[in-house]
Design a protein that fits this description.
The complex is a heterodimer of chains A (about 600) and B (about 190). Chain A is an alpha/beta fold and about 600 residues long. Chain A has three domains: about 170 residues, 3-Layer(aba) Sandwich (Rossmann fold), CATH 3.40.50.970; about 160 residues, Rossmann fold (3-Layer(aba) Sandwich); about 180 residues, Thiamin diphosphate (ThDP)-binding fold, Pyr/PP domains (Rossmann fold, 3-Layer(aba) Sandwich). Chain A has 25 helices and 20 strands. In chain A, strand 2, helix 4 and strand 3 form a beta-alpha-beta unit. In chain A, helix 5 packs across helix 20. The longest helix of chain A is centred in the N-terminal third of the chain and has 15 residues. In chain A, about 60% of the residues are buried. Helices cover about 25% and strands about 35% of the residues of chain B. Chain B has four helices and nine strands; from the N terminus they run βαββαββαββαββ. The mean pLDDT of chain B is about 90. At the A-B interface, helix 14 of A face helix 1 and helix 2 of B.
Chain lengths: ~600, ~190
């Protein structure tokens, strides 16, 4: 028999059977398998839902799950499992957990792990692995999962013993949630999960060497930062995803409103500050509002909280907030001065540091004239679009119509592309954890599986996924588990028969050569949805938009609406990659 | 979309350099690279070196050398990393190292005692000349084969560079160098 045949699994378990026979009778009563320890560790950490796909090397864990109250959601593809877990983590604030097999089960997760890594989302991936004596032999369904995921995880652990595997899972769960959140992974060789143990997993803890970041920043630095902020003529807050992750949105609101400081959000920071407040300048950066980018470009003190100053936000480093002293609040010291030099580095938890700043502010900045300027910019550079009724529906109109019809606290998930930007621009976000998107990695296909995870995290909240036709095609199979779980979600496809953002860039930067961006070969999405067992709807003109939205919202289960929108609508404002935020284009002629 | 075109807008006057530092007109220059020795105490476990070296590679830090070996505490290993980077890069390297789950402590070692081991295979037509030169550089000829003499040397990176240059007069066949190991001087702890 070849060593690389999966039938070796039975040999591995035969070995452990012999070992167990040597154990005394009273010990046998307490004995359990490594796989049971994995499940016990999940239960101890109060994990309620897991996402995954069954497979050979992970079968022992699935077998142990069968006796647990944990609700396992079988996804149609592992990438969908990782996106669903990611969205679950964003919406619930607790780590989302995936359970998948070795080899392709692990590699299919990789996109979702990388996505979580760039957005600092807490997910824990439990991957099956071939038995330890076959590791490195190119066994059936073997990959070097540790090696592949090392650069995109906060930590990954190769489980080596049934006695410690439960603690390995606990460690992964603790690490994913501690400090700056992020993805962790435990690789579970089959012999570890099938072998017996009498060791009960401990409470989840982080490793001893891991430096748990302090909650509060150095008080002297806080004082200096507060003085700079209070003395500013043109103060501005840049609120990032870290504000939401640390549950600091309320503190941020109080702080900004008390001191009258306008607020720009990053894309992951959408919802951290209510966009219907007069101080809100909404999203900044590449497709941010004109007024947000004018404010970023002219402020003299910038308080960046929980943001890593991503290049989509900053544009060219040389022209980013060029006149501003920067106060940077972040829980991860490695983010300080990584991209933008921090004049006042404040390392700590966003909520705790905002409280500290609040206590240290010597007074309110004299910023009335500055606030007036931001209001003038709002009037000068309004967000808007034309809606000639005899032309194709404008995608922005669909987003606004959905927003109007949806509940105030509805959660929006998105794929990646033009539709994502319209969903960011034309939906009014007022609450944290209502924007669930692939911000850093820009993963097309994120929206539909994310809607599954979001709905399971918040069953009583309305969930709407915006997708593009190209984006949805990548993970449309997520509708199958949505039907199986009877999840009341609405997927709104802004279908322009293009991979639209590529088409827009080709038009702008590649002499309008629309090579391979014309996707007129896509399926009939309403029929596809019905094939999955979901409700499929279609809207071709303005007059049909309100009706299909009403029909989708009224349906108890997943609905997919195929909105046929203007194929050549473009996303503006726009700052070209690496460009100057102050020179945002409002139309093609400005590029 | 409504609003003035870029050229018709009010313009900010400031600027940052490529390191994200707001430019003070008095000090326009960007930070120049400097060489430094970073020492890190890490768990002595499989995969830790790969994680650290991967981290450095991914971030395009310019590593001069990276050595690793056990310490008096057998559960720990010491990594000595020599980097040449501008100031923000050095700070970033230390912070990235520090945040790794298996890192206990990280320190930039100032005034370090630095040593590197080199084995140098020199052409053997003048064995006594090679041995004499090795001694002059504080090393020794450790083996003489038919056509080559192998010399062992320890010293700072610069001393080894100088010795190798000197051996060129005989002809250098091969060189193996370990990279720098370093400890803080006196009673100061290294990391």
């Amino acid at each position: 028999m070849s060593k690389s045949q999966p039938t070796n699994e039975s040999e591995a378990s035969a070995d452990t059977d012999e070992l167990s026979e040597e154990a005394s009778d009273e010990q046998t009563a307490n004995k359990t398998k490594g796989a049971q320890s994995v499940v016990t560790a999940l239960e101890k950490a109060e994990v309620e839902i897991t996402f995954g796909v069954q497979g050979g090397a992970i079968m022992p864990v699935y077998d142990a799950l069968a006796d647990s109250d944990i609700h396992h959601v079988s996804m149609a593809h592992e990438q969908g499992a990782s996106h669903a877990a990611d969205a679950y983590g964003i919406v619930s604030g607790k780590p989302g957990v995936t359970i998948t097999t070795s080899g392709p089960g692990a590699t299919n997760l990789v996109t979702g792990i990388a996505d979580a890594n760039l957005d600092s989302d807490p997910i824990v991936s439990l991957t099956g692995q071939v038995p330890q004596d076959m590791v490195g032999n190119d066994a059936f369904q073997e990959t070097n999962t540790m090696g592949i995921t090392s650069p995109i995880t906060k930590a990954n652990i190769f489980a080596t013993s049934p006695d410690t595997v439960g603690d390995d899972v606990g460690t992964a769960l603790a690490l994913a949630a501690e400090g700056r959140q992020g993805p962790t992974l435990v690789d579970l060789p089959k012999n570890v999960t099938t072998s017996e143990t009498d060791v009960e997993p401990s409470e989840p803890t982080v490793p001893e060497a891991y430096q748990v970041p302090p909650d509060e920043a150095d008080p002297h630095s806080v004082e200096a930062a507060a003085e700079a902020l209070a003395a500013a003529d043109r103060p501005l807050i840049l609120s990032g995803g870290g504000v939401i992750k640390s549950e600091a949105s309320e503190q941020l609101r109080e702080f900004a409103i008390e001191y009258g400081i306008p607020v720009v959000t990053t894309m992951p920071g959408l919802g951290s500050f209510p966009e219907d407040n007069a101080l809100a300048l909404e999203m900044g950066g590449m497709h941010g509002t004109g007024y947000a980018n004018m404010a970023l470009s002219h402020c003299d003190v910038l308080l960046g909280i929980g943001t890593r100053f991503d290049d989509r936000l900053t544009g060219g480093i040389e022209t980013f907030a060029p006149e501003a002293e920067v106060i940077h609040v972040d829980i991860d010291p490695a983010e300080i001065s990584k991209n933008i030099h921090a004049d006042y580095p404040l390392i700590g938890d966003a909520g705790a540091v905002i409280e500290q700043l609040h206590g240290a502010m010597p007074g309110e900045p004299d910023a009335e004239a500055w606030r007036d300027r931001t209001m003038e910019w709002k009037a000068t550079y309004p967000m808007g679009y034309e809606t000639p009724q005899d032309e194709a529906v404008k995608p922005q109109f669909v987003v606004e119509a959905m927003n109007e019809a949806a509940a105030d606290d509805a959660i929006v998930t998105t794929g990646v592309g033009q539709h994502q930007m319209w969903a960011a621009q034309y939906w009014t976000y007022t609450e944290p954890r209502t924007w669930v998107s692939s911000n850093g990695l820009g993963t097309m296909g994120y929206g539909a599986p994310a809607a599954v995870g979001a709905k399971l995290a918040a069953p009583d909240t309305q969930v709407i996924a915006f997708e593009g036709d190209g984006s949805f095609l990548m993970t449309s199979q997520a509708i199958a588990p949505a039907v199986r779980e009877n999840l009341d979600i609405t997927v709104a496809i802004l279908n322009n028969s293009y991979v639209g953002m590529i088409r827009q860039w080709q038009d702008a930067f590649y002499d309008e050569r629309r090579y391979e961006s014309d996707w007129d070969w896509g399926p009939d999405f309403a029929t596809l949805a019905e094939a999955y067992g979901a409700q499929g709807l279609r809207a071709m003109g303005y007059d049909e938009v309100p009706d299909v939205i009403e029909e989708a919202f009224a349906y108890d289960g997943p609905s997919v609406i195929d909105f046929h929108v203007d194929p050549v609508a473009d996303v503006y404002p726009m700052v070209p990659s690496g460009g100057n935020n102050a020179e945002f284009a409002l139309e093609a002629d400005h590029l | 979309m409504a609003g003035p075109a870029p050229e018709d807008r009010e313009k900010p006057t400031g600027r940052r350099n490529s390191q994200g530092i707001r430019i003070d007109p008095q000090a326009e220059a960007e930070a120049k690279p400097r060489r430094t020795v970073i020492s890190a105490l890490v768990d002595h476990k499989p995969g830790v070196l790969a994680k650290v070296s991967g981290l450095f590679a991914r971030r395009q830090f310019n590593i001069e050398s990276l050595t690793v070996g056990p310490t008096v505490d057998e559960t720990m290993a010491r990594m000595t990393i020599v980097v040449e980077e501008p100031e923000p890069g050095i700070e970033q390297a230390k912070r990235q190292l520090r945040k790794q789950v298996h890192t206990w402590s990280v320190r930039e070692v100032e005034g370090a005692i630095e040593r590197e081991l080199a084995l140098i295979k020199v052409d053997g037509h003048d064995p006594s000349g090679v041995a004499a030169l090795a001694e002059m550089h504080g090393g020794q000829a450790v083996r003489a084969d038919d056509e080559v003499v192998t010399v062992e040397l320890t010293g700072t990176e610069e001393e080894i560079d100088a010795a190798i240059a000197a051996f060129e007069q005989f002809g250098v066949h091969e060189v193996a160098r370990t990279g720098t190991a370093a400890l803080a001087s006196g009673t100061r702890s290294t990391a």
